[in-house]
Q: What sequence folds into this?
């Protein structure tokens, strides 16, 4: 099984692309637990709330991985929650680095229009650039492999599809 995490600042197309890949290619994905949290409990993301969100995301990822799909897309993971902690509180609880990591991270650049959906907080160009930098710093701190995904939405989709195709070929039959 290959776990690929879509990582990066808000409103960069991660969730839309993950849903499309599931619908069109049958690649299962784990939605963003933090979005569900924000939609039901609000956006007061205390450090304790962020740790609870990471635990919920981890539980959802483990449940999805139990069926052992050949490829599993994670529409975030606790490392992205770590980036949120840094953005909102200037610190990251070590707990957020202790969860299982994805095999690969695709870091979505903030070079597409930002859409306010009432759960997003960092919409100015400066905030988006800072969030992108923090997200990349977290990946570097965790020592995980990643590559950038940039361009318009069509270009992003093509890059991700090519990446997934290449990784699936390298994995070979039977996982």
A:
């Amino acid at each position: 099984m290959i776990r690929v995490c879509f990582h990066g600042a808000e409103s960069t197309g991660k969730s839309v692309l993950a849903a499309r890949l599931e619908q069109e290619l049958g690649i299962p994905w784990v939605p963003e637990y933090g979005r569900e949290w924000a939609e039901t409990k609000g956006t007061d993301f205390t450090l304790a709330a962020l740790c609870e969100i990471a635990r919920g995301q981890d539980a959802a990822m483990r449940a999805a991985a139990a069926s052992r799909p050949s490829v599993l897309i994670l529409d975030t993971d606790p490392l992205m929650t770590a980036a949120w902690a840094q953005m909102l509180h200037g610190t990251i609880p070590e707990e957020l680095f202790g969860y299982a990591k994805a095999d690969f991270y695709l870091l979505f650049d903030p070079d597409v229009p930002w859409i306010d959906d009432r759960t997003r907080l960092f919409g100015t160009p400066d905030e988006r650039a800072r969030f992108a930098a923090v997200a990349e710093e977290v990946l570097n701190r965790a020592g995980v492999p990643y590559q950038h995904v940039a361009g318009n939405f069509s270009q992003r989709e093509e890059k991700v599809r090519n990446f997934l195709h290449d990784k699936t070929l390298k994995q070979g039959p039977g996982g």
Observations:
- Residues 114 and 124 are 8 Å apart (CA to CA).
- The beta strands are 2-8, 29-30, 71-74, 104-108, 146-149.
- The chain has one domain: 2-170.
